[in-house]
Each structure stands twice: as C-alpha cells, then as structure tokens.
Amino acid sequence: MGRILTFNCHEAYIHLLGKLGFDLDVVDGLPGRYCSGWDARMRPVPACVRLISLETALGSQSYDAAIAHNLSDLLLLRALDLPKILVLHVSLDARRTEEKGAPPLAAMQEQLATYLRAISGTAVAVSRMKAASWGQDCSIIRPGIDPLEYQSFDGREAVALRVANQVMARPLRFAWDAHTRITRGHALRLVGHNPGLAGSEAAASWQALRACYQSHRAYVHTAGAGLDDGYNLAVVEAMMTGMPIVSLAGSESPVVDTVNGYVSDDPEVLNARLGQLLRDVALARELGCRARETALRDFSLPAFVAGWGAALERARRTWLASRRQ
C-alpha cells in the first residue's frame, strides 16, 4: 500500500490511522460538521496527511485503497475503481433511534450488504456490537493507543472528567440521564463541543486534553444499551493515561469493578463510588494504574496496525477477485 484516501469525520480516529505507515489523502471541508475544516484543537494534522477537496479526490485514480467512515462517504466513492472499506463506528440501532423515518433494521442491514457486494467493498467495525447491529460478519479493530502519548496521571484535581461532543443531540446514545445521576453533587468538567450546555467547551489543544486526563481524578462513561459500547476512544485514552473509570455496564467494557474502576447498572451506586474516588487520590491512583495495564493489554498500537494491515489486504483481494469475474 502506498497512498490511501479517506474522509475527515473524526480527527482523533484519522490521527490513529496516521500510525499505519501510509500516506493519507483526507477529504476535508464536507458539510454537516460543526467545524468546516480540520479542527486542530482535537488533533494536529499528522505529517503523513494531506488535506484535499472532494473534487481533487474524485479526480485521482492514484490511490491503493479508500476508507469510508459512514454511508455518505461510501456513496461518494462509487465512481472510483479501487478497494473500499467501510468502518462501522456507530451502532445501526443508534442511527435508527436518532433519524426520523429510518427504514426497518433488517432492510437497512440488507441494503448495506447488497451495496458492499455491488462495489466489491468490505467492512470493519470498532466493536463486536456494532458489527452485529449492521448484520456484518467482519473484522473487529479496536482502537490502539501509543502509551508514550498518554501517561503521567496524578489526579490532583478532585474533579470528574467526561469528554463528549453534541450530547444534547444524542441523549439516548450517551445515556445522559444516567450520566447526570452519577455526577450529581460532584465536581465535573465536560470537555467537548456541546452547544446549550453551560460550562462545556472543547480543549484548546490535544496537549490541553491530555493534561485534563492527567490532572482530573476519575473519568465517567455512560452509553445507552444497544446504542453504544461500554467504552469509546476517550475512555481508552483516559485508561492509558492512568485514570480510573466510573461506568455504566456496557458491551465489551474494559472496566472491571473494583479492579481498574467501578462499573454498575445502578447510577446511584456509581454516584457513591465516584464520590469515594474524588475524596481519595491514593485509591484513584491505584485503580488508575491497573486501568493503564488493561489499556496496554487490550488496546495496543501494534494490534491496531496489524488489524488494519490485514483489513487492507483483504479489501485488495476482494476487489481483485471481482475484476477477474
């Protein structure tokens, strides 16, 4: 593989793709995002990335493969004859919950399967739950984090942390009622783009975000059952830094109760556990140390790179087989 085409849907994930060792052309400036172009507050543009327009991308045939992050991306690629991969970042159930008039689940699953066959494309998913929600028997590639980029937790601020964007537009996916109950009565910092929520703002830079992970006492995660996973990229980053996690129980959660954080179905139990962590920095550091051990084991960067290498090779073979027919 030499140069890969992809789309800027999520700076943090594109930054991870920059670890694969390929040159990336990233289509930037597409409509529908809160920011018109690459948001350098989220991540710096990797050295291997060239930001381009959609017109430039569609006028080129020099790519070895293309990676789409949603169905809109995939449809934009239809004129390009090359291996194509769709990344399933979002549960189909979440999408149907949030989109009025969405077709039935089975119909949407079949539409995706039919279209992937038609374009000789393949899919990968960030979790087993998300693959299953789309009816796809595909590879699962968990995020991989460079441990040298996230470390040095001290938890000196007795404040809980949550990193999330546009929570009021997706309250069920974020299980926001449970989040509110877990954090009630405790100091909390919400980092992200959340119009209408007082006190919430995006970190000024990637360095500032990592400083939040280092200094805040505990990380809070909630997700609606069947709508999102028991973890996301921010949870993994917090764990790799060495933060303890306070989380609703969820699919594929890396949080083990009383080992690397606290996990429960009961927000009131988690409210009490969060209070305990905010009062006891030594406990937070002990659980956070084990959270980092979990992240090192379950979210390694070499596994992420290897997973993507295999996925790109599989996409190439699928595409070549279709051309021989």
- Please identify, by name, the CATH architecture of the largest domain: 3-Layer(aba) Sandwich
- Give start-end ranges of low-pLDDT stretches: none
Number of helices: 12
Total strands: the figure is 12
Overview features:
single chain, 325 residues, Rossmann fold, 2 domains, five-stranded parallel sheet, globular
Overview of the molecule:
It is a single chain. The chain has helices at residues 11-17, 54-58, 71-76, 92-98, 105-119, 128-133, 176-183, 206-215, 233-241, 267-279, 281-298, 301-324, and strands spanning 3-7, 23-27, 49-52, 65-68, 84-88, 122-125, 139-140, 157-163, 188-191, 216-221, 245-248, 261-264. The longest helix is centred in the last third of the chain and has 24 residues, at 301-324. With 325 residues, it is an alpha/beta fold. Strands 3-2-1-4-5-6-7 form a 7-stranded parallel β-sheet. Strands 9-8-10-11-12 form a 5-stranded parallel β-sheet, sandwiched between helices. It folds into 2 domains: 3-144 and 301-324, Rossmann fold (3-Layer(aba) Sandwich); 157-298, Rossmann fold. It is 39% helix and 17% strand. The protein contains 12 helices and 12 strands. Helix 9 (233-241) links the parallel strand 10 and strand 11. The protein is globular. 40% of the residues are buried. The model has no long low-confidence stretch (mean pLDDT 95). The two termini are 23 Å apart.
In short:
The chain has 325 residues and is α/β, with parallel strands linked by helices.
What is the fold's blueprint, element by element?
Elements: E1 3-7, H1 11-17, E2 23-27, E3 49-52, H2 54-58, E4 65-68, H3 71-76, E5 84-88, H4 92-98, H5 105-119, E6 122-125, H6 128-133, E7 139-140, E8 157-163, H7 176-183, E9 188-191, H8 206-215, E10 216-221, H9 233-241, E11 245-248, E12 261-264, H10 267-279, H11 281-298, H12 301-324
Parallel strand pairs: 1-2, 1-4, 2-3, 4-5, 5-6, 6-7, 8-9, 8-10, 10-11, 11-12
Helix pairs in contact: 7-10, 9-11
